[in-house]
Amino acid sequence: MRLKETRELMLKAGPILDEIQRESSEIGIPSIDPEDGITLMIEAYRQALQGGKLMLDLGAGIGYSTAWIALGTQEGCTDGGCKIIAVEYDPARASRIKGNLDRLGLTRVEIEVKTGEAIHVLEGLENSSIALAFVDIEKHQYLDALKLLETKLKPWGAALFHNAFFPAPPEEFFLAASNKPWKSTILPTPAGMLVAYRERSVSDK
């Protein structure tokens, strides 16, 4: 029965995702590619299955990437209590996120939309509270986001950074992601997706 429900959800979601991506393009938002979206969905599913409750979308636009994260979280969050915080700097774009996500008809995921600087929102979250963070903000801010996620992510939580190929972040970011507490790789999606997992440290409970 569960797989039948999943199949119906994904069949419904396909056209909605296409519409949100098209709307993004029409108003000048460079959205992620579907390959990136599938990566986000799979990782959100995996993190939710392992008990992760909080997912972030930093630089959410009008909710295209958020929708992919929400689909994975919905499928993995079998015991409820899961939440996605979508952060978008532009108030006009942010105002459209909730409506776009409501079209998916998700039942096990709470969506909260915050308007403002993604870095400031990240600073205000509890340490070790985040299971997944997707980062698609100004590339010069990637290193700051990575440093904050060293404490904000749960042990073995996932940080995914868009545009690992182009427009590429500073070299200092790649250097930091190559060292402790990170285990990182780059997936060959069209613009590149850097995936980093935070190792458990002695300070983790």
Can you put this structure into words, describing what you see?
The chain is 44% helix and 23% strand. Helix 6 (142-152) links the parallel strand 4 and strand 5. It has a single domain, classed as 3-Layer(aba) Sandwich (Rossmann fold). Helix 1 packs antiparallel against helix 3 and helix 2 (34-49) runs parallel beside helix 3. It is built from 7 helices and 7 strands. The chain is of the alpha/beta class. It has a 7-stranded mixed sheet with strand order 3-2-1-4-5-7-6, sandwiched between helices. It has helices spanning 2-26, 34-49, 64-76, 91-102, 118-123, 142-152, 171-177, and strands at 54-58, 82-88, 109-115, 130-135, 153-162, 182-187, 193-198.
Features:
205 residues; alpha/beta; Rossmann fold; 7-stranded mixed beta sheet; 7 helices
Mean pLDDT: 95
Major sheet: 7 strands, mixed
Record the strand order, biggest sheet: 3-2-1-4-5-7-6
Helix % is 40-55%
CATH architecture: 3-Layer(aba) Sandwich
Shape: globular
The proportion of residues in beta strands is 15-25%
Rg (C-alpha, Å): 16 Å
Number of domains: 1
- Summed up, the helix count is 7
Q: What is the assigned CATH homologous superfamily?
A: Vaccinia Virus protein VP39
Order of helices and strands: HHEHEHEHEHEHEE
Helix-and-strand structural type: alpha/beta
Point out poorly predicted stretches: none
CATH topology: Rossmann fold
Distance linking N and C termini: 37 Å
